Amino acid sequence: MTDKSPDAFRTISEVADDLDLPQHVLRFWETRFSQIKPLKRGGGRRYYRPTDVDLLRGIRHLLYEEGYTIKGVQKILRENGIQFAIAIGTGDMSALEEMTRRNAEARQAEAETEAAAPQAGAAAPPAQADADVVVGHARPRGRGLFGLGGKGGESGEGADLSRDNRTLLQEALFDLLECKRLLDQTR
């Protein structure tokens, strides 16, 4: 079989082989993620566009590599848009770096607002500050490196991270994803 153009549509079997997933998982994801919309031809045969494949790759990464739940990934897609998941799927770190930069600017603006606010009451955070933050909850994997997660993967009350720590972890994740992308390019 000859290789297809990068812009060619892919069948479900080609996508399943490319992502190392069973076909039924892709069909199931279509029921859970409304953003996955392959072109359907006669007999229900599915054809995936290159952006569909990148979106699926991003969803796969969030579910299997990062440990997010389906609800967590749905929330990420709802709050950050499909371009975020596509950027993860393609390894395009510029979009992720831009999001990280905007998050840092929002944190800086929030810190300045809190510093200027009177001490009498707690100021409500600006609505824009949360707009670009990656959302969703990763499924705990056992006790983890620092003992978070409790027995059997249950997280306790103290296991929640502060917003600043989540942001720092997200920035570290983006750096690690960039390292992975560079390593994959050298192979």
From TrEMBL:
SUPFAM superfamilies for the chain: Putative DNA-binding domain (SSF46955)
> Which InterPro entries does its entry note?
DNA-bd_dom_put_sf, MerR-type_HTH_dom, MerR_fam
Amino acid composition bias (Low complexity), ranges on this chain: 114-130
CDD domains attached to this UniProt entry: HTH_MlrA-like_sg2
Q: Tell me one GO molecular function of this protein.
A: DNA binding
Q: Which residues form the HTH merR-type domain?
A: 11-79
Q: Where is this region: Disordered?
A: 104-130
Its recorded name reads HTH merR-type domain-containing protein
